Each structure stands twice: as C-alpha cells, then as structure tokens.
Amino acid sequence: MLLFLSLLILVASSVSGSDSDKSALLQFKASLSDPYGALSNWVPTGSSHCSWDGVTCDSNSRVSALNITGGGRGEGGNSCARIAQFPLYGFGIRRNCYYGSDNVVKLAGSISPEVAKLTELRVLSLPFNELSGEIPVEVWGMEKLEVLDLEGNDISGSLPSRFGGLKGLRVLNLGFNGISGEIPDSLSGFTSLQVLNLAGNRVNGGAVPKEIGFSCGKLEYLELAGNFLIGGIPRSLGNCSGLRSLVLYSNLLQEAIPVELGRLNELQVLDVSRNSLSGSIPLELKYCSNLSVLVLSNLFDPVPSSEGDSYLGLSSSSDEFNFFEGVIPAEIATLPKLKIIWAPRVLAPGNLPSDWGSCDNLEMVNFGQNLFNGEISEGFIHCRKLHFLDLSLNRLTGELSEKPLAPCMTVFDVSGNVGVPFIGDVGGLTVYHNFGGNNFTGDLQSMPIGLDRLGEQTGYAFLAVENKLTGPFPGDLLEKCNGLDSMIVNVSNNKIIGQIPADIESNPKQPGQIRDLKYLSLAGNNLSGSIPASLGQLHSLEVLDLSSNLLSGEIPKDLVNLSNLTVLLLNNNKLSGQIPPGLANVTTLSAFNASFNNLSGPLPLKDNLMKCSSVLGNPFLRSCRMFSLTVPSTDPQGRDLLNSAATPPSSPPQRSGNSSAFNSIEIASITSASAILSVLIALVILYVYTRKWNPRSRIGGSARKEVTIFTDIGVRLTFEDVVRATGSFNASNCIGSGGFGATYKAEISLGVLVAIKRLAIGRFQGVQQFDAEIKTLGRLRHPNLVTLIGYHASETEMFLIYNYLPDGQAIGYYSRAEGLTASICFRG
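Structure for non-specific serine/threonine protein kinase, as requested:
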C-alpha cells in the first residue's frame, strides 16, 4: 500500500508539473507578437504541449528545451546553441542558424518571467528574432538552465553583478543585442561555461575581467568583439587551456598581446583587429599548433546585416589603430594548420618572410601596406591551397614570371597603387591578379590563371600596369580567354616592344574567336607596326587603349564592328590616313581620342564626341587645322593619360602652311607658364607622396589619447568616453557635416549631452600648431560663441567638444565654429 501511494504521489506530481509547464508556455506565448504564426499550434486544448513547435520534453513530459530560431524553424534537436553549431569565425562573420527552412519565424516583444516556471528547462534558445526589453531577473535564477542563447535580438539592460542560479550554465550567448554596462567578474563562477558570446553589444566602461581566466578550464569560445572594452587583454586567459576561439576585434583595447596566449594549444581563431594594441607579436604564439585564423588588423568594418549574417563594409582606415613592432615571426607564419593570416597596415617596415615551410593549408595572406622590403618569396609556390595573396603597397622587387604565382589564386595583388576598376559586368567569380606599380622586370608571360579557374561564370582581371616589363608582345597572352565569362587585360606603361599579333583575336591552342575580352590596354609601351584589323572581331570589347606607342599605318575600318565599344584611345602614335567614317555609327562610343598622329581627311560627325579637341596635333585633318599647334609636353611620350586627355610628343608636329602660328612672345609666355605649372604639380605630388608614406601617420597604436579640457561640465571626459558616447562615430549619431568634418551628438553621462566635431585628418598643417592655436580658441568667451569644452589632437584623430545646442541652433553654431577653426588652421 505504501508503495502504491508513493507511485500515486509521483504520478500526480508529474502531471501537475506537466500542466504547470503547459500553462507557463501559454503565458510565454501571450507576451509575444507572432506575425508569421510560428506558435500557431500552441493551443490550450487538443495536442500535448510536448508536440508544439520548438518544444522538447523529457520522459516525464516536462519541458527541457525551447528552441525557436528566427528566420526558420529550429525544431527539437536542431538547437542553434549546441556546441557543434558554433563555427570558428573571425572578421565579424556571424553564424547562420536558419537551416534553409522556407518557414519564416520572427517573434517580437519581451520575454515573460513565466518562462522561469519551466523548472526542468535546460535549453532556452531564441536567437535571431526581434525580442526586446531586459532579460527577466527570474531567468538568472533558473537552477537547471544550461544554454541561454538570445543572439541577434534587441535585448537591452545589463548583466547582473551576481547570479542566483545557472550553476550548470554551458552556453551564454547574448551576441549582437543592446546589452550595456560592464562585464561582471562573477561570470568566473560558471565553471562549466563553454561559450561566452557578448559580441556586438554596448558593453562599456570596463576591461575584460581577469577573473574569467581563473576558472575557465572548459571555455572554448570567447567572443567579446564590437564593444567598448578598455585596458589590456588579460594575461589570465592563458589559463583557458581548451579555448578554441578568441575574438576581440573592434574594441578600445591597448597594450601588447600577452605572451601567455602562447599556452593555448587548442586555439584556432585569434582576431584582435581594430583596437589600439602595440608592442611586438609574441613569439610564444608559435606554440599554438592548431592556430587556423590570425587577424591582427582589418581595414574593413564588420557590419551585421538584417539577415543575421554579416558582410565586410568599407570603413575609414583611421578606425584601425593597432600597430606592432617588427614583422610576424616566421615560426608563426608557418604554423602547419594556419589558413588565414591577415595583417594589412599594422607592421613596422621590415623584410617579408621568405621561408614559408609547410604551408599546405594556407588559403589567404594579406600583408598589404606594410612597407615590406625584399623580393616576393618563391616559397608561396608550395602553398597549394593559397587563393588570396595581397602584398600591395609595399616596396617589393623582383622579376615577373609564372613561377611564384600559384595559378589557382582568386586574388593575387602585389600592386603599388590602386588597381584599375572593372569595366562592365564581370559576373560570377572574379579572379584578380594585380602586379601593378612595382619594379618587375623580364618578359611579359602568358596570364597566370590556372585551368581549374576557367569557366563560363568566371571574370578575370590581369593587371601589370607601371612596371619595367620588356620583350615582345607574347602571341599567346590571351590563350586562355575562351574559357572565361569576361576578361580585363591592362599592361600599360611598361617597355614592351614588337608588334601586336595579327591573330590576337584567335586562340592558337583552341581555335576560334576570343569573345570575352572586355578591356584591353597596351598604352604607354613601345609597340610598333600597324593596328591589327583582327581587333575588330573582339565583339565584347568595351575599352581599347593603344595610346602612347609607336604604332603606324591606318586605323582599321574593322573597328566599326565593335558594337559594345565605349572607349577608344589611339593618341600619341604615328597613325596616318583617315579616321574610318563608320566610327560615327558606333552608338556606344562615349570617349574617343586620336590626338598627335598624322591623320588626314575629314573628321567624321559623331554628335559632340568627335570634335577637334579629340584630334589635336593632326595638322592635315580638315576643319581642325587651327588646333594642330600645341605647346610641347614636358613628358616625352605623354603617358600620364587621365580622363582620355592626350599630350603631344616631344617634338611638335610640322606646321601646315595654312595653319596659324604663335608669335615668340606667346610661345615664351606659354612655355614659362607650363614650367611653373609643372613645378607646382611636382610639389603637390611630392607633398601627397610624403604624407602617404610617412610612417608616423600609421602608428595608431602609440597615438596619444589625451583630451584637453577647458570647461568642467561635471563629468569625466576621456578619449574612450567620447568614442563610446558617439558609438565609434556612428552615422546614426551624426547631426551635421561640413568641409572640415562631421558633428555628432554624444550623451557622455545620463542627461549630459555634448556635440563632438570630428575633424578630417589631413586638413591641417600639423598637430603641434593645431594644438597651440586651439588652446587660444578655448580661452575665448562670448555670449554669441558656442562654448568649446575641450579637444583631442593626434596623428590619427582630431575632434572638438562643444556644448550641445538643440534643434536648428546647433547647425548654425557649429558651422560658424568650423569657419573659425579654418581661419586658425590655415593661417600663413
């Protein structure tokens, strides 16, 4: 009888608990808005609550898991919060938990405290919905909860300083919400914690608690990126022996990378970009034998998209303040499992690592803009999986050949300047090989694209602009064109000789016309002979630039067959004969230049396109003889072609007997003016070049962070306070802009508003002069002047702090303040 009574009580208790869970679920539903009917089968009568969408029960019909992922139905065991579902990522890439479902799920509203009545609940996973408000305090007291995953909502409030429950918590994922306040050191009490993700919130006012590293033996993922954390990276994190991913990008962290991180043998991802770190890269990282992704800097801003993923959006390079002393140790660069090493504009000048050892897994390398010296290592040839290599804007030399290229690369950029933009729609995968702006020598080779990259959806760009390539034009340069969807070739401004092959439109290895070439520039070389008539069979061609060569003969009539041609540049050659009249019928042609040749005959009528200004220096062209005389250029071959402009050859064309001539005074005046203009242009170029390559402007990590205060407003004003209050100068806080920068509204403390005028770097003569004169401005007091509270000035950032004026008053005041600043900063 006693046993029977015990069983009866147990069953009654189970039924009571089950009913209580059902009631709590219905109250949870009642607090939410469900526009897409994701919870439509949550009804009081009928089926058991254990069969409701997103609900998982144990053997006693008690709710053990609630999984409702926005964007798709994350049912039952498909919890996005499972450890296996957390991918290794950096660069701000967020996980995708939608599972390809066609069913739309978007719950809105606040989380009901009634959910805490689900006393057997172990998983509460509601990511990527539109939940708002604070997390109920009752949730923090749930004893059996192991997974709390609310990523990608609009949750606000702060984390409690002490937690009453959650003793077995394994996953705390609150990433990409609106959580504010500091990270409490009491998180160290979660000894079973495997995932801690607070990325993309508004966590501010404090550092990463060192206490996290005191009991982190099970921690695998620590994601704190995209906040306003200050101080250094805690050395105690070296105790987290199981840590696989440490992502700290886009904070205000300073100091050096701790050498203790070298103890993290399981570490696979380390992203510390977009902070203010300095010092040297610790050699101890070589002991991280499983390291797969190393991101030390990132000139792109990870911006979350509305779908829950993210993309890399362009951002001001001034947002990257990391600057490390010395180069990356070879022992780190050659770690056997390394896939991505990303470090643009962050390292001190030095030599590019030459020994790449065993790089079988290496896929992406970015060392752009680091002023590295030496030659490009042939060791890259052994990196069989390498498909992205950016060594642009360095000081590398060497001979251009196929050997070190790894033909399977999607991006190979060793350019010394900004590459030529793509013309037209290349579609699909774009393979980008840029050798431009270096001192590469040797003969021009066949284009280094691998056969495995050829395909109808592949667009290919081959750029070798402004080098010292020599030798004849290779007849097989375009031999791989037939396997591509579209193609761009630019080998301008080299020393290539010989003739353009007469069969350039054909592929010698695959007979047939090359139909996919859209852009061909051979300008600024030493090509001779005639223009092949076969160019007229490149029917996809949109841009043809043969300017500044030694080409002779007539302009082929076949060019009129290029129905997609938009730009045709033939200036600065030795062409003769007439301009084909049919060119006037090419309706797509928008830019034409044939200046400084020996053309004759009439000028075809083509709206306003073909006019005498586009055929200067052709004394035998009818109707344009008055334009045939020009002042000789300071550039013998006129190779600096901008906006389709032409410059005359070194010796002026012979004057026609009927052409008007300049007198000696006019020639002397124009020549003097040209010389003065050339000197001024040279000085401007020199000024821009020295500013561009001045290493001091790149040392963001050591830039001063002081804020000078003129007027006490009763609250603390630091560099970090200003950056945090403006949301890192987020556009949503911008209240106006002008020629010298933009103005932002900033709430420094509760109810304390100021206006921050962020000045454009490069508009002032120097930090010291700006510093001195702005102090004079700070002492001015007048009822009609907006009050200057303080300022910050360094090589990488300048801003002014004003008292905030509401509504339209602010615009006038800040505009006048900008004018006053301009008069100060540009005085002689």
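The longest strand covers residues 455-463.
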